[in-house]
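Hypothesis: this fold can be encoded by more than one sequence.
Test: take the structure tokens below, design a sequence, compare later.
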């Protein structure tokens, strides 16, 4: 009996020794494609921020605070289209109405690029003027997100006072040729501002506040000149001072890749 007890004690002690020597798991991002990859992590924490081969489309609502039709059906259709198409759109509320306090040089430049002649106007992907009704918007979004994409992108940011520190990454899943431009837009939710014909105060969402890398207008900066190989990754880092009147806590980012062909531009993908 004593011999059996001794064997049990030795076995238990050995197991405890090996257990104590086993290293604790280090949680973090284990995806090497992610911009928050942690080479020391041994267990994925589910918080990786990586470019995915997911096709999204840009959804632009050219609007104005003094636009009665924007209040009546423009803004409601814009918000409903986002709700009807979860994870399929990159929505931007682009204020370009006369005297609109939410105007800025980027929103006005973008409205000019899309040849907007009045508000509300809706654009989806490369369709510059979509009828503002649920069926038309949903159909355009479905068309714009059909098929695979050649490039994915992601971004992350931290806030210190009124300054955003931003990291962005593009991954080309297949070889591409041509001239590509990358834009990182600063947007804000929860913007309290009057909106004609709607209760005051009114809260606006997805408001375009600026372009973080505005080197070539609202389409950002050139990242590919002639061609790029499959599997290529492009990393970018920026600092951006939040414009006066914006709440840094409510800011977020939208990334968009454009392709320039002669004098025309094509939307490629966004996130």
């Amino acid at each position: 009996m004593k011999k059996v007890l001794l064997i049990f004690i030795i076995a238990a002690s050995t197991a405890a020794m090996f257990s104590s020597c086993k290293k604790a798991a280090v949680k973090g991002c284990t995806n090497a494609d992610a911009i928050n990859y942690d080479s020391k992590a041994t267990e994925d924490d589910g918080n990786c921020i990586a470019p995915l081969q997911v096709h999204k489309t840009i959804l632009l609502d050219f609007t104005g605070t003094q636009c009665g039709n924007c209040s009546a059906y423009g803004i409601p259709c814009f918000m409903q289209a986002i709700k009807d198409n979860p994870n399929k759109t990159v929505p931007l509320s682009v204020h370009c109405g006369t005297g609109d306090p939410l105007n800025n040089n980027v929103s006005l430049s973008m409205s000019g690029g899309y040849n907007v002649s009045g508000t509300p106007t809706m654009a989806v992907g490369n369709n510059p003027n979509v009828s503002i009704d649920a069926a038309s918007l949903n159909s355009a979004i479905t068309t714009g997100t059909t098929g695979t994409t050649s490039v994915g992108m992601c971004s992350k940011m931290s806030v210190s006072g009124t300054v955003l520190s931003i990291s962005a990454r593009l991954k080309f899943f297949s070889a591409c040729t041509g001239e590509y431009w990358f834009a990182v837009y600063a947007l804000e939710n929860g913007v309290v501002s009057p909106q004609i014909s709607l209760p005051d105060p009114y809260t606006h969402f997805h408001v375009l506040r600026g372009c973080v890398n505005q080197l070539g207008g609202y389409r950002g900066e050139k990242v590919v000149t002639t061609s790029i190989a499959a599997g290529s990754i492009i990393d970018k880092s920026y600092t951006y001072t939040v414009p006066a009147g914006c709440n840094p806590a409510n800011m977020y980012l939208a990334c968009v890749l454009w392709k320039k062909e002669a004098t025309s531009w094509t939307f490629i993908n966004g996130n």
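Residues 51 and 152 are 5 Å apart (CA to CA). The chain has a mean pLDDT of 91.
Hypothesis status: open.
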